[in-house]
Write a structure and sequence with these properties.
CATH class of the largest domain: Alpha Beta
Number of helices: 10
Protein name: Dehydrogenase related protein
Pfam family, one: GFO_IDH_MocA_C3
Domain Gfo/Idh/MocA-like oxidoreductase N-terminal: 2-116
GO molecular function: nucleotide binding
Bound molecules: NADP nicotinamide-adenine-dinucleotide phosphate
Domain GFO/IDH/MocA-like oxidoreductase: 160-248
Number of strands: 14
CATH superfamily of the largest domain: NAD(P)-binding Rossmann-like Domain
Low-confidence stretches: none
CATH architecture of the largest domain: 3-Layer(aba) Sandwich
Shape: globular
Structural class: alpha/beta
Strand content: 15-25%
């Protein structure tokens, strides 16, 4: 059993706790919140027995093997580093960190603390339907491009429109559409097609300086991939990967509920399964497998692949952000 603590008490943490408990491999033991009463009320209903308002206390608790970090994006780096330096497991919500300099520092910390493990909770790459697409891409004769969309109106955009600056729409917290939703599409592109040679990001910035929506173009040697991202619009557009006459059509490039392969004759074949009711179960199961048997060669290989992937996705997001001239607070040009 993996005893875990949490940082962040929003709905996404609840979803991860539910997923983790559903696997039967994890047990929530401790909760950190800036507010002790909140730690207690959130934690007690989920079976936790320790409640903290100091992160160090949570991390140093001997009944905490792993920490799930679901704080605002800009805090991920320092918190993950602290967990690694305590020789524990850090499960960090996407996006892992804000830029490659931070990623390099996490790598250095991992090198110094070989007992520690680091995971980015990029949920959809762990799902069967994601793998089904990758397999289908591998079987197609030629790829000629893709158009991937993930655009969901954020409940926090109402607050932005009222004149506030919610974390997710703030440069201070490394927010914006690319970081928040584009990360899923960046994972799609890197996993299915590899790293692009050249990128451009046409960001539609909002008052706070982050991108509310935008179009990214990833140039590969033989084709382009277009990413359509938004947090201030809703889109029901399907996403597609183009072969020659064949294609893969998915209802949503980040949620992957229904995916079809359409062959050269126009025959449609469903390649997806019904997704699990909680989309975080697959990652919670995968992480548990590696945490419980890190020396198993398949687990070690998967773990290294996830780290490499996360590093590349971070690099891609950073390159897109630079191209879109979006700079987070206190981020030096060379970061
Ligand atoms: N995988 C997914 O499907 C998914 C979905 C949604 C979000 N996420 C990720 O989860 C993370 C959290 O997102 P969110 O929307 O929940 O963020 P959020 O509401 O802005 O903050 C998350 C938590 O951090 C704490 N917090 C809030 N403001 C803070 C501040 N100024 N300083 C320090 N702590 C603060 C709060 O916990 P306390 O009040 O208890 O301290 C809050 O519950 C993000 O990285 C996001 O990308 C992932």
């Amino acid at each position: 059993m993996i005893n875990f603590g949490i940082i962040g008490t929003n709905w996404i943490t609840q979803q991860y706790i539910d997923a983790a408990h559903a696997t039967g491999e994890w047990k929530l033991t401790a909760v950190y919140s800036r507010n002790l009463e909140k730690a207690y009320s959130f934690g007690e209903k989920n079976g936790a027995t320790k409640f903290y308002d100091q992160i160090e206390d949570l991390i140093n608790d001997k009944n905490v093997d792993a920490v799930y970090i679901a704080s605002p994006n800009s805090l991920h780096f320092a918190q993950a580093k602290q967990v690694i330096e305590a020789d524990k497991v850090a499960v960090v919500e996407k996006p892992m960190v804000a830029n490659p300099t931070e990623w390099e520092q996490l790598d250095e910390a991992l090198e110094k603390h070989p007992q520690a493990l680091l995971f980015e909770a990029a949920r959809h790459i762990h799902e069967d339907n994601f793998r089904a697409i990758r397999n289908q891409v591998g079987q197609m004769k030629l790829i000629q491009g893709a158009t991937l969309t993930y655009a969901k109106y954020s409940s926090r955009y109402d607050s932005y429109l009222e004149g506030h600056e919610p974390n997710i729409f703030s440069l201070n917290f490394a927010g914006g559409a690319l970081q928040d939703l584009g990360v899923y599409l960046a994972y799609d592109a890197v996993c299915w097609f590899g790293m692009p040679e050249e990128v451009a990001y046409f960001a539609q910035k909002i008052r706070t300086g982050v991108d509310g929506k935008g179009i990214a173009i990833l140039r590969y040697p033989e084709f382009d991939v277009t990413l359509n991202i938004g947090k201030n619009i809703n889109s029901e557009l399907s996403s597609e990967i183009y072969g020659v006459k064949d294609s893969i059509v998915m209802d949503n490039a980040a949620e992957l509920n229904r995916v079809e392969y359409i062959d050269e004759e126009g025959n449609r074949r469903l390649i997806s399964d019904d997704p699990e009711s909680n989309p975080m179960i697959a990652e919670a199961r995968d992480f548990a497998r590696v945490i419980q048997d890190p020396d198993n060669h398949i687990n070690r290989k998967d773990y290294q692949n996830w780290l490499d992937l996360s590093r590349n996705v971070n690099k891609l997001l950073y390159n897109l952000r630079q191209n879109g001239k979006i700079y987070f607070t206190n981020e030096k040009e060379e970061d």
